Amino acid sequence: MLLRKKVLNILRNAREASWVIASVSTKNKNRALVAMAQALLKNSRYLLSQNARDVSAAKKRNLSRALIDRLTLTDKRVKEMAESLRKVAGLKDPVGEIIRQWRRPNKLLIKKVRVPIGVVGIIYESRPNVTSDCAGLCLKSGNACVLRGGSEAINSNLAIHKVITQGIDRFGIPSSAISMVNVTDRSAVKVLLTSPEFVDLVIPRGGEGLIRKVTEISTIPVIKHYKGVCHLYVDKYADLKKATEIAFNAKVQRPAICNAIETLLVHKDIASRFLPEVSRVLKDAGVELRGCPKTRKILKSIKKATEKDWYAEYLDLILAVKVVNSVDEAIGFINKYGSNHSDAIITKNRYIADMFLRRVDSSCVYLNASTRFTDGYQFGLGAEIGISTDKIHARGPMALEELCSYKYIILGSGQIRT
Amino acid sequence: MLLRKKVLNILRNAREASWVIASVSTKNKNRALVAMAQALLKNSRYLLSQNARDVSAAKKRNLSRALIDRLTLTDKRVKEMAESLRKVAGLKDPVGEIIRQWRRPNKLLIKKVRVPIGVVGIIYESRPNVTSDCAGLCLKSGNACVLRGGSEAINSNLAIHKVITQGIDRFGIPSSAISMVNVTDRSAVKVLLTSPEFVDLVIPRGGEGLIRKVTEISTIPVIKHYKGVCHLYVDKYADLKKATEIAFNAKVQRPAICNAIETLLVHKDIASRFLPEVSRVLKDAGVELRGCPKTRKILKSIKKATEKDWYAEYLDLILAVKVVNSVDEAIGFINKYGSNHSDAIITKNRYIADMFLRRVDSSCVYLNASTRFTDGYQFGLGAEIGISTDKIHARGPMALEELCSYKYIILGSGQIRT
Known about the structure:
The structure is a homodimer.
Chain A: H1 2-21, H2 26-42, H3 44-60, H4 65-71, H5 75-90, E1 98-103, E2 109-116, E3 119-124, H6 129-140, E4 144-148, H7 154-165, E5 178-180, H8 187-193, E6 201-205, H9 208-217, E7 230-234, H10 240-252, E8 261-267, H11 268-284, E9 288-291, H12 293-298, E10 303-304, H13 307-311, E11 318-324, H14 327-337, E12 342-346, H15 350-359, E13 364-369, E14 386-388, E15 396-398, E16 404-415
Parallel strand pairs in A: 3-4, 3-6, 4-5, 7-8, 7-12, 8-11, 9-10, 9-11, 12-13
Antiparallel strand pairs in A: 1-2, 2-16, 14-15
Helix pairs in contact in A: 1-8, 2-5, 2-7, 3-7, 5-6, 10-11
């Protein structure tokens, strides 16, 4: 009960701060972001020492190497965090933009204006840089945020939080506009997720398990990204040289990222020409292929793909391969087994391309390009708080605009309804 | 278990239909809507006879008169339902619109394109017209819908559903694009609300109790509108004649609608001039006033307003009245007690107006006009599936555009990420 009260108090303060930060000027928000960047650099030593406590505890608990790597701060990482905040200061302020306006026959002027969402809750795992990255994006978009990182990073997160919030009230921003749930008890998350009166949106960042749990518990809207099971479909009218380059890029360049492909679909008419060539290049890079029966007639030595493989997000140098009879089959397959993230077709046929682009139900659908471009920076949005595979509110890379809502401002001169 | 299977089957069919209806041409969607309108008129007798079964059962169960009124179909109401569908046929198709497009330095062309959401679940109470209204709006916006009305209207809803879906496959639309959960068992709703793999969005339409329940259970995004606790703030720089007219209109014209005001806030400097005049006009219309202590010094005979009154959505000829010291106090009061629906200020002072319009955290904020204009038709959107007091995805009146999501279509010529 005491815990609940404590968390509710944090949330209430964030809500109150959200009303203030919503109308802080662009200039002051930018000055605050630059000051936060400077504070990170200046306190780098303190941050690393606090982080060392988390890292040593993680080692004692025998947590995985991958987790410890994500958890560890270095001078370079602190510099990157600061650089990130500076970049956000340079981005266009989305708040106050008039999205559209029109006048009604009765002379009412209706303006649809971009406004902050209010309070954004961020639930994340072990990366401490998420603390400053998300705080910066929320601040620039006029939102208060409530941060809740993994318990294994608690000392790092508290330190970063302390450093970036100190003195931001100089710029008219209450420090509770960047709030942190500094209670490692798990029930604190539940209080956050069931307080729609204080929190408007929840963005979970982490593995599928975390995201499913958050979605299940939350009575607040959640924007999420379960996984990236991305496909490349090589059509019978494909430029096979480009197809090979793109398959290689989309699988090999950074296989652990969500926009890397997990499944290659190949039209039957070009399978016997394309598969040997692409498999040679992929195998040279250490990629393990798993194929459907038709694929294995061409690539005899590869493993069999099971039903489970079609759903798999390997995030590793493994690629499932299937031969299909038509673009229709490819589209159906992607909509069934995919994760609505990023899928590409390689073809020179405009009609087939059009069909694929229209009917594949994913946030990003590519023609003759690598799926690796699904990213806020690559899209030119200047930032990214996540990639949404949802369809409500935001889809694909989410940046400052997607951290905003809108409101209607209606200007009258005494109009009444008759 | 059998029930669960049955409902899941309905949902799965709706999901499959959503892939088809998403790319039906505007022409065919409009032809289907007109055919649905004609079918309603042609089968009016059948609809009324099925409705009579529900009405008589409701009477036997001693349900309230208001509910029975909402439940009852008449020739006129059937005509209105048909007219509604015809109007939707006349609206602009939102699907396929290019919201924005830009080219990246690497020559990738990124198009942000409006697309249907997919499957929309509508949970509603006793009004059978919701069945055809929502089916029409979902169809026009390229969405499949799953309808689930109140059990007291089951025969009416089944009849309407049967009539409007018959033969729509002539226009390339699978009849399961308009699906109905024809099981009155309450656990059917739970299956719907926890099947995010088949349903993308849930819109509950009904009382606050229904909406809270839906939000609690659902693991699917919900867009909702709990209540309309709307305010009118009469500033010290108000044109008091206009203020009286607008107060009267916003309270009296249709008090049972969510955009009617429930609370009047009056600046202290004009309270003794304004309150006697406005109370005279309101009392003549049968409005009961409930006031704060300062109000009751001026209007001596009125009832005392309690804390509960400030939160109340009367939907009736009752108005809470409070004297405030400043626009700041008015804004704080509205953000605390209001429901983020529609709030208005009456003032001639531009600076004060601006402050109010920016800082009141509601979907629609008015200057010198009645809150009664918060409505899809009044806004010129041509339709309305509801009014959202949420901030995610859609805010204020929701029409066809708000029933859409978007996707990114990225056109390349072999681009890979380096």
